[in-house]
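User: what does the whole thing look like in 3D?
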Amino acid sequence: MNSKVLSIKTVVAIGIGAAVFIILSRFGSIPTGIPNTNVETSYAFLALMSLLYGPVAGLLIGLIGHTIKDAVFYGAPWFSWIIASGVVGLLIGLAASRIKLRDGKFGIKAIISFNIIQVITNSIAWFLIAPTLDIFIYAEPANKVYIQGLVAGAANIVTVGVLGTLLAIAYAKTRPKKGSLTREL
Amino acid sequence: MNHKILSYIHQESPIHRLTGAAKLIGFILWSLIAMITYDTRILVVMFILGIMIFLSSKVEFRYISFVFYIFLLFLFINNIAIFLFEPMQGVEMYHTKHEILHIIGHYTLTAEQLFYQFNLTLKYLTIIPLALLFMVTTHPSEFAASLNKIGVSYRIAYAVALALRYIPDIQRDYQNISLAQQARGIDLSKKQKLTKKLRYASSILMPLIFLSLNRIETISAAIELRGFGSQKRRSWYHERPFTKEDYLAIMLIILLFVFSMIITFLDGNRFYNPFR
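Assistant: Here's the predicted 3D structure for the full assembly of 461 residues, as structure tokens:
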């Protein structure tokens, strides 16, 4: 693996990020009433980590976090949705590479483009990838998995749109802006 | 909020003696078979084998019972949901229709549907004993070493080790923050409106995330100071060399894999059909 892609900070961000993802999906989720489907605050966190540490970190936090979460809390990994989680992290990180959250820049423009990106990404992952893999791997009935995907995707879009945006704004406020210092004469 | 999670339990047994890498390869192949095949005969054999392997590990049932019950509940709900959404899935799959009981409207219980859902349930029940066993018999550090051994980059393997290492710490952080915010007046009961729930959730989320971001800075500075990532390879304290038993176990699982694939695809598709 290329060491530029996986810097030490990225490695640690993946590890700690996955651990936070796991804890949030265990304690920070609100049931929607459809089996196996919740409003997951962990996806707002995943979106923030993709913005901060890039697509590779996003992909691996999604994959590792979701796999360990399934394994330690439910006993068996659910691979179709694990792959979808990884895709969310990857695509948000790829598409949002122009948002410079680290420099404290998260204005109206960035908020709008972040939300467009997250809606598209979540739609691809939950309306398309997760249910299709469910049918392919587990041969579950099509309309059940598409409804599950629809509900989970809609919930995730709202969660990332509201909580994810708020988190990013809060983070941007803590960063010193580039060129914010003026020289006293 | 004292939720239990599955974790490694030290014991002496043939399963514990196998190296992590052998168990990982075995578990991956085992799950692959269970995911691919819909052949009832293979699934039944694997289900019995799985239970036998579990018994040979001498892991007491009470250590894993809480996860097992959650899983059974999930299976139950999932089965009901499948029937509600698609009571004719089995008929579509097996191309015949043997009605047993007409319930209401288009809800008719058919032998095909029962058989399809039986297979689906069996698939999950074959994976679960080995998945649980893998979790409780493999030390987290050895697990990271085995990931590296089967070809995963050691940086990624180390990230997995970090995640496993920090789950308890972050769980503690979460609980402390949650209690502190409750002391300051947030209400985590279920009766709240969704908007309020979201606001309260974010009042826990923010401190937790900033704490974790700081933690990332600290840990990456610490491991960089110790020279992490300067070499192409690294050694693992918990890595063990393969023994005869490991090779034997891997050979057996590969045999099982090949054998199941041949039986599964011999008649053209993944589904074993007793109705024709």
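In plain terms: Chain A touches chain B through 59 residues (CB under 8 Å). The helical segments of chain A are 8-27, 42-53, 55-74, 79-95, 108-138, 142-174.
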